[in-house]
Amino acid sequence: MTAGIDSSGTVRPQDDLYRHANGQWLAEHEIPADKAIYGAFHALWDTAEQDVRAIVEKTAAAGHPDGTEARKIGDLYGSFMDEDTIERLGAEPIAEQLALVRAIEDVPGLVSALGQLELQGVPGLFHYWVDADAKKSDEYVVYLMQGGLSLPDESYYREDNFAAERTAYVAHVARMLELAGLPDPAGSAERIMDLETRIAGHHWDRVKNRDVTLTYNKVDRSGLEALTPDFDWSVWLAGAGVPESAFEQVVVREPDFFTGAAAAVQDAGLDRWKEWLSWRIVHSAAPLLSRAFVDENFAFYGTTLTGAPELRERWKRGVGVVEQALGEALGQLYVAEHFPPAAKARMVELVQNLVEAYRQRIETLDWMGADTRQRALDKLGSFMPKIGYPDKWKDYSALEIDPADLFGNVRRSVAVETARDLAKLGQPMDRTEWKMTPQTVNAYYNPPMNEIVFPAGILQPPFFDADADDAVNYGAIGAVIGHEIGHGFDDQGSRYDGDGNLNDWWTDDDRAAFEQRTDKLVAQYDVLEPAETPGQHVNGKLTLGENIGDLGGLSIAYVAYQLSLDGAEPPEADGQRFFISWAHAWSTKTRPEEAARRLAIDPHSPPEFRCNAVVKNIDQYHQTFNSAEGDGMWLAPEERVRIW
Asked: Which of 93, 122, 382, 611 fits a disulfide with 117 by CB distance 3.0 to 4.6 angstroms?
């Protein structure tokens, strides 16, 4: 527990818990050259990545029979590591796609090409996927979402602080088009920027787009066509390989975006759209092409946008390609080597205590009425925890892998996953499905399934150690578990009932009391300014859901830790160890470019504030460290926010 703690002794936990717990770590560690951000999470990602690499290389060397998943893992990795073939091919892999664009003669041809390229992994003007219907959670439906941008967010096209990035982007597009041998690269780049700026003008911003009520707009086919009167959906569906029946009913997340984008298809000029679509082909393929494309792609999307000075080693990128195409096949091998049954059993116990702690807190809330309280308890009682790995693994038998055809392998993977997604329509809900692979260092809450999911990858130190004592585990993985449960009761997750349906189960008075507390939390975070980005602040509304998750998660984890003692007195220093474990989990250094990018697009607050801004609101923190008025972390009791 002392590792990383400020060695100077000048930073007290009452003044700055984050720097008290991590001062030495912050002083001694440098961000690796191939990363834009580095901390406890990222160190664990590195460990998982090394573990997966060992599995991949061992599998590749074993000479498994043709057609087996193990052989596919080895052959796909080999196709990425075959630099001689990739260099020899240059831009040849995208020649067919670029020829498709050159052959476009009219708007219907453009719409058809958008569909065809979507099926090949080239992102078009919008995104679509199949998921549980948010108001009929036992049925699948297609969702449509805004797209068409190549910068991280619509704000990059309009805000003054991103002016330099816009200039660099135009120059980057020109260089990429030149590498691909396309005509007038400089002029095309300017026109592409103009078109994307128009597209960005129709985008919803990220605060509006996280509102689950505003973004649920279910329409039938005639309703979709009314939104986009001049867009021929039959032509697009045929090109994309999507059956007409799939779009009998769809949920359109941002209706006016689709209206504006469809109008632009008609009147922005066919030649301009062809330039833009050619750029999207080059951009999406760049990581799979020769070194010149890879280096130029990284120079902008890596160095300019995130500040990372060095490209990741080839083996790391190769492992990422295999993860993307054969993630659960790798996951089976990973779990067998790195997730013992005892770890799962310990996690089950932790989850049970966290759920019980939430139940006790909900039962004693002073701001919630009896009717809403009972519905909240009903929802909590129906939570489904998933730990480690799925009960049923994905089948990759339809995926053909050619060890000499990297680009084709990735294209075929996209087609297989698209077919897998579309095959869900009209079928019973598959509640065994996971949205992350077991080796992923992360966790999530899925509202329509009312499930909390913890892959094996995150269930390692410093978050979880089966051999560590409870104060340490509850301060880290316990708070992560509590965070994910808390998403079921954050400002958006709380709009779903226990069956996973968008359903207003709150009384008006209780919702008003809830929002009074969340508004105070927004105000607390709005004034926070990361040291890496002077003058730029956290967006309290964008980060609200994650901030509620952090606050509830740590508060409830402390209660759950007390429950784990089963009435016994805790060791004297365990309160300190609990909060220092929480602080250690957020030890992070970030490059200024990446900090700015995350402020614009990330619904999570910067790591420093995920530590300090949360504990300021927790009475047990102030009691543990005997904080008082005048201390740097002091927050008067009446100003502290307690939600769950």
From this structure: 122
Q: Between the CA of residue 340 and those of 48, 123, 184, 389, 438, what are the distances in Å?
A: 15, 39, 58, 11, 13
Q: What is the dihedral of CA 353, 498, 554, 440, to 10 degrees?
A: 90
Whether 383 and 352 have beta carbons less than 8 Å apart is answered as no
Q: Span 17-34+341-392+427-639: which CATH code?
A: 3.40.390.10
The three state secondary structure string of 190-214 is HHHHHHHHHHHHHCCCHHHHCCCCC
What are 515's two structure tokens? Answer: 């929002």
CATH topology match: 17-34+341-392+427-639 vs 94-288: no
Q: What is the pLDDT of residues 541-557, one digit of tens each?
A: 999 999 999 999 999 99
Three-class secondary structure of residue 181 per DSSP: coil
- Per the structure block, which two tokens stand in for 368? 């919630």
Q: Which sign, positive or negative, has the C-alpha torsion 512, 513, 514, 517? A: positive
Distance of CA 504 to the CA centre of its chain: 27
130 pairs with which residues across the strands?
Answer: 142
Distance of CA 43 to the CA centre of its chain: 18
Q: What's the longest Cα–Cα distance across the chain?
A: 78
Distances (CA, A) of 214 to 103, 367, 495, 502: 39, 26, 12, 11
Is the pLDDT confidence value at 221 over 90? yes
- Fold (CATH) for 94-288: Neutral endopeptidase; domain 2 (1.10.1380)
Helix ranges restricted to H, 529-605: 544-564, 574-585, 592-601
Residue 211 contacts residue 492 (beta carbons within 8 Å) = yes
Please confirm whether the linkage preceding 607 is cis (ω < 30° from 0): no
| In the chain, where the domains are located | 17-34+341-392+427-639, 94-288
What digits encode the pLDDT tens for the residues 38-85? 999 999 999 999 999 999 999 999 989 999 999 999 999 999 999 999
The rounded distance, in Å, linking the Cα atoms of 124 and 146 is 10
State the pTM of this model: 0.95
What is the H or E stretch that residue 510 is in?
helix 508-526
